[in-house]
User: Fold this.
Amino acid sequence: MKIGELAKRSGLSAYTIRYYERIGLLPNADRDQSGQRDYDASILTWIEFLDRLKTTGMPIREMLRYAALRERGVDTEAERGALLQQHRERVRAHLAKLQACLLVLDTKIAGYAGVEKRMKDYDASIPERQRKPAATRQAGAR
Assistant:
């Protein structure tokens, strides 16, 4: 497949594909008779894996290390596995931090939702004769 088709199917720009190829994240593409890149469809699986590594925050230098190990073949499986296990632990730690942040946000949002209810309850508890008309209340009173 030509670079335009690969870009369309992978979601990467042609520029990014050429960049990834230049730095070694993607293997050099075969060339057709006119010198244009001609990619095998199997490259899509590798690009999808790279995207997942990127999404989970793996630095490009580690992605390059993994790609180089992959290129060297089966003898590097243990090292690649270890690299992925280390990355997984960093992802898990990051997820735990995000979960804690999410809990704080949920608590804060619930508190803001509670302010409106508390104000309505407070307003309802004031007898009619003690209430000032809405137009005469001070802005800071709410």
Notes: The mean pLDDT is 88.
